[in-house]
UniProtKB/TrEMBL annotation:
Entry keyword annotation includes Signal: no
GO molecular function: ATP binding; tRNA dimethylallyltransferase activity
Keyword annotations from UniProtKB, A to Z: ATP-binding, Nucleotide-binding, Transferase
Species name: marine metagenome
InterPro entries to which the protein is assigned, alphabetical: Dimethylallyltransferase
Family annotation (Pfam families): IPPT
Name of the protein in its database record: tRNA dimethylallyltransferase
Keyword Signal: no
Any Gene Ontology biological process: tRNA modification
């Protein structure tokens, strides 16, 4: 989403349904083969796509097959030939790893206490009634709870796996944003949220004066 706003949507964003359906069928049989293929044609992009992220993995190979270029090649094109230019002033909000991990643990606990398992049960029932697929059920947490409901893991392993997958997702996000080379960042580790807007204003004014 950030790249789409900052640099526009590259031409590879067109869809090719037959290719996607074939790749999805392959994924259901052998997700590892698709991941290895992506790693061979686009190792940089493979670093930020998890093998369990069916949507992004299939989409990456769909782009490659339909355009002849990898996602990374399209992103490089965005750098040199943006589809449109907006006057943006991006600031990256950061937090120390140990503090964010603690927040992830607390947030996961809160979601279970708020009825996360019941929510997934409701989604599964509606999905069956409507004979459709809810993409949310393929995301972190929902996928693991679905497995728990089917009896494929116990409650302890369920919570541990969700926490682990969320932390891994966070690390990939950090790595991705580092590649975006955003000039200004704010360490939120010891900041009160109410002070952030003032700091952002100060950074913006500094940048304006510097230019």
């Amino acid at each position: 989403y950030y790249r789409a706003i900052a640099k526009g949507i590259f031409k590879g964003s067109v869809s090719d349904l037959p290719i996607r359906e074939r790749l999805e069928q392959t994924y259901e049989k052998d997700p590892g083969s698709l991941f290895e293929r992506l790693r061979s044609v686009d190792p940089d992009y493979a670093e930020i796509v998890h093998i369990n992220n069916k949507k992004r993995l299939v989409r990456a190979l769909e782009i490659f097959e339909s355009t002849g270029k990898t996602p990374s090649q399209h992103f490089i094109g965005q750098e040199t030939n943006p589809t449109f230019v907006l006057d943006l002033f991006p600031i990256l909000l950061c937090m120390r790893k140990e503090l964010l991990n603690d927040r992830i643990d607390k947030r996961t606990k809160q979601m279970f206490e708020s009825g996360w398992i019941d929510e997934v049960n409701t989604l599964l029932e509606k999905q069956s009634e409507m004979d459709t697929f809810f993409p949310a059920l393929d995301s972190i947490g929902y996928k693991q709870i679905h497995r728990y409901i089917k009896g494929e893991m116990n409650e302890h392993d369920l919570k541990e796996d969700i926490t682990l997958k969320t932390r891994q997702f966070f690390r990939r996000q950090v790595k991705w944003f580092r590649k975006e080379k955003i000039e200004f960042s704010i360490d939120m580790s010891q900041l009160d949220n109410g002070k952030v807007s003032g700091i952002i204003s100060d950074i913006y004014n500094y940048a304006i004066l510097k230019d």
